[in-house]
Structure formats: structure tokens, C-alpha cells
Design brief:
Helix content: under 10%
Number of helices: 3
Largest sheet: 6 strands, antiparallel, barrel
Strand order of the largest sheet: 1-2-11-10-7-12
Strand content: 35-45%
Distance between the termini: 11 Å
Shape: extended
Structural class: mainly beta
Order of helices and strands: EEEHEHEEEEHEEEE
Radius of gyration: 23 Å
């Protein structure tokens, strides 16, 4: 399967009308061309991969090592750099661009992003636990109840407890491309995708389509 990948920014959600009049909820992703900044191969790096840059950045906002990295590839500095494994790195070249032209309407894709951070939350919000009785005699309204077993007298590894919620790398598979607007670098994807507005997302061809 040919590798299809592009990086973009989540713009937000809206809705469009299908030909039969049905409303389709879509997420808009602004996906400007991603450019190859580095190519890795078996001889020098032990594996084959390409490094893509996205979102052009002023040179004054980069340090000298970064400037040298981009100058070596003869490309403009970018805000984001991400690496992707490929089967044959020899078919790619430095400065090559990945655009929305590689995707088609109706195609299945996988979208990866960083979910919204919720901060420190209890087990009810974090894991969907049920609350306790809300009567005045109860003292267990939103507590997580017993933390460990009586016999081992310890808390088992993996116990669902209160803690940081969200802010994790999440991939949603088999989403559908509804519309492509190449002149504005816009990709309309059916349904929701991870992340807040303006956050970085990675769009790939579906691995389980």
C-alpha cells in the first residue's frame, strides 16, 4: 500500500449537506503541503523513514542547529517536524511535498492528534464510575470506594484511580473524507477528531480499511 500522509491544523467542526439532503457533521482540517526535510535509510540510520515539516516558520524563530538542519535539505524552516516509517526511502527526495492531491473523496483515513487535557479529575469523569447514594446519611457521593483488596493488602497495578485526564495521543480509525478544497488546503472529514482547535493532526491512509 502506498504511504499517504499529511499534517494539518484542526480548524473546527461544521456541517454540510449531502446530495440527498442529509446533514453530515464534518471536521475541517487545514492541511498545507508537508515537505520532506530528512530521509533516513538502513545504511546510515538502521531503518527507513522520512521526516516531514509542516507550518512555515520565520528563520529568526529557529536556533542555529535547526537552521542548519533545514538548510541541508534546502527547505524553509517549519514549526513542526514528524517522522514516518516507510518501506522504501529511496523513492522519496528532499524538498518533496505531500499535498491533499493524494487523497480522494470517500476514502477511509486514520487521524492522529492530542486529546484535550481535562486536568486532574475523579474516577466518575475519568473512568465513568457510578456515584454513591446522594442521601444525607451517605458519605460516599463521589468517592472511588475501596482502593485495594483485603487479602493482598495492596493496590493492584492498573487500578483505575483519580488522576490526569486527557492530553494523550489518540488515533481514530476509518474516518471518511467528505470533501477536499485544494485551493484553500482544506480537508473535510466526517465526524469528530481528537484535539483542540489549532492543534496539530496527522492524516494517513487507513490501515484497516
Amino acid at each position: 500500500m502506498t504511504q499517504k500522509v499529511i499534517m494539518g491544523k484542526k480548524v473546527g467542526m461544521t456541517q454540510i449537506f449531502a446530495d440527498d439532503g442529509k446533514i453530515i457533521p464534518v471536521t475541517v482540517v487545514e492541511a498545507a503541503p508537508s515537505v520532506i526535510v530528512q530521509i533516513k535509510n538502513e545504511a546510515t540510520d538502521g531503518y527507513q523513514a522520512i521526516q516531514l515539516g509542516f507550518d512555515e516558520l520565520r528563520a529568526k524563530l529557529t536556533n542555529k542547529p535547526q537552521q542548519g538542519h533545514f538548510a541541508k535539505a534546502d527547505v524553509k524552516p517549519t514549526r513542526y517536524l514528524r517522522e514516518f516509517r516507510v518501506e522504501d526511502a529511496s523513492q522519496y527526495s528532499l524538498g518533496q511535498e505531500f499535498t491533499l492531491d493524494q487523497f480522494e473523496v470517500g476514502e477511509k483515513i486514520d487521524v492522529t492528534g492530542t486529546s484535550k487535557g481535562k486536568g486532574f479529575t475523579s474516577t466518575i469523569k475519568r473512568w465513568g464510575f457510578a456515584r454513591g447514594p446522594m442521601g444525607h446519611g451517605s458519605k460516599n457521593h463521589r468517592r472511588p470506594a475501596s482502593a485495594g483488596a483485603k487479602g493482598p493488602a495492596r493496590v493492584f497495578k492498573g487500578k483505575k484511580s483519580p488522576g490526569r485526564h486527557g492530553n494523550l495521543r489518540v488515533t481514530i480509525q476509518n474516518l471518511e473524507v467528505v470533501k477536499i478544497v485544494p485551493e484553500n488546503n482544506l480537508l473535510l472529514i466526517k465526524g469528530s477528531i481528537p484535539g483542540a482547535k489549532k492543534s496539530l493532526v496527522i492524516v494517513k491512509n487507513a490501515v484497516k480499511a
